[in-house]
Amino acid sequence: MPEFGYLRILNKDNEAILFITEGMIVGSWCMDVLSLEEFYENKAMKMIKISSDSNLELYDMTSKMFNTLMELNEECKLSLPIEIDLLLNEIALFDIKSREDILAKYRIKEPSDQDLEGLLNDYKSKV
Q1: What gap in Å lies between CA 55 and CA 9, rounded to an integer?
Q2: Distance CA 123, CA 35 (A)
Q3: Which are the contacts of 73, defined by CB distance < 8 A and separation ≥ 6?
Q4: In 31, 54, 80, 85, which residue has its Cα 20 to 30 A from 9's Cα atom?
Q5: What is the rounded distance in angstroms from the CA atom of residue 66 to the CA atom of residue 1?
């Protein structure tokens, strides 16, 4: 996670933005795509759902730019910051801790030395 930035979450039903500083969510905004109704603060947080088909965009910025963004979005500020880990740990997308976890999650078989040697020998025989 960036020290200062925001996470944009795009779903078929809504679009949400979480303002993040030092691992904490300090503001949130959400818009219902069908009604175009906007929600702020804790009400927006309750509407945020991240699923496997969500598109996530993470933006990093300087502290000065972040502070300016928060001033412009005063209505989005949460009364109490929320740890980003609390939200992300509930989502299976972010349970990945290592390369092995990624390979297991997507059922990718890492090629063995024998597999690689076979590919190289096959390539050499065709050249």
Answers
A1: 6
A2: 57
A3: 19, 27, 29
A4: 80
A5: 14
Torsions phi, psi for 123 (to 5 deg) = -65, -45
Q: Which long-range contacts (CB under 8 A, 24 or more apart) does 44-48 make?
A: 44/16, 44/76, 45/78, 45/82, 47/14, 47/16, 48/9, 48/14, 48/16, 48/18, 48/87
pLDDT at 116: 77
Q: Which pLDDT belongs to residue 105?
A: 65
Of the given ranges (16-20, 46-50, 96-100, 111-115), which has the lowest mean pLDDT?
A: 96-100
**Model confidence band, residue 113 (pLDDT cutoffs 50, 70, 90):** confident
Q: What SS3 string covers the chain?
A: CCCEEEEEEECCCEEEEEEEECCEEEEEEEEECCCCCEEEHHHHHHHCCCCCCCEEEEEECCHHHHHHHHHHCHHHEEEEEEEHHHHHCCCHHHCCCCHHHHHHHCCCCCCCHHHHHHHHHHHHHHC
Is residue 29 pLDDT above 90, yes or no?
yes
